[in-house]
Amino acid sequence: MKPKIVIIGGGSGLPVIIKPLVKQEVDLSAIVTVADDGGSSGLLRNYINIVPPGDIRNILVAMADTDAEFLKVMQYRFDAKDDFFAKHAVGNLIIAAMTEMHGNIFDAVQYLANFMHVQGHIYPVSNEPLVLHAEFKNGNTVAGEAEITHAHQTIDHVWVTGDEPGEEPKAAPEVVEAILSADLIVYGPGSLFTSILPNVVVPEVREALQLTKAKQVYIANIMTQKGETDAYTDAQHLLALNAHIGMQAIDYVISNSEKVPDDFVDFQKWNEVSNQVKLDEQAVVVQGATQISGDFLQLRDAGAFHDGQKITEELLKILEQC
């Protein structure tokens, strides 16, 4: 039987490690956030009240074994001058249409996953769009992922609600089952407060993460993120993750120790102001985790990314110990 790996997150970070992982002899499941409310996803969410499709689209493409030209179409964005379609990704529109046809996002994604020959499983964390809330260190609160990011304040903690006031967020049953039956759970890489934690703080997911027998691994970000993790070390990322899970759940932290060359990252291109995440092994160990550090850096497109193949090799080594 193939070992079961569950990856939790969203955004553009997950595909970096998913692409090499799907080539391994593992049973891979991706749990994806549904709290995005910016860009094309946010517009579709507001227009037709569906789960935001952008993160799901990226994971579908990363895990698919289908025609490369079709995958390019899925990722294609209309030109900014195309009026209503401006900047919408074709894949987002397809997912929106399939959601209307099937009546919910979960069944729509399963159909598309089968159609695209996805190597593994893709589970939206909830069948309904969720609203992300944050309380900042100064006591102010904000609702909405985009608003949280744009506030550029130090976050204390986050939580999610349903779209309607007082609506309790519900996890898809398959999400809970995947976590409880996993051999290895991997968080990230990705934005800590707006991609990873929106999954973790769904009550049924948090409870499953506390109960699972799986080893749990956090892939520490290479760079800090303005308004989310300014000046955070890898241990501070870990502290926030454990706090939101409600216990010291993480067994391993994979941290990049290779220096990002000065002036390599084009912060204007990536609309970001950040610094390289510093390592603090002692503080990681205090939280009951083992730090795995090394050169996991890939420099491309004027940005600093994880080397997915090297990360995969480390995950497989951990799996051997499970």
Automatic annotation (TrEMBL):
The keyword ATP-binding does not apply. GO terms for cellular component: cytoplasm. The keyword Cytoplasm applies. One of its GO terms (molecular function) is LPPG:FO 2-phospho-L-lactate transferase activity. Gene3D superfamilies: CofD-like domains. Required for morphogenesis under gluconeogenic growth conditions. This is Putative gluconeogenesis factor. It comes from Leuconostoc mesenteroides.
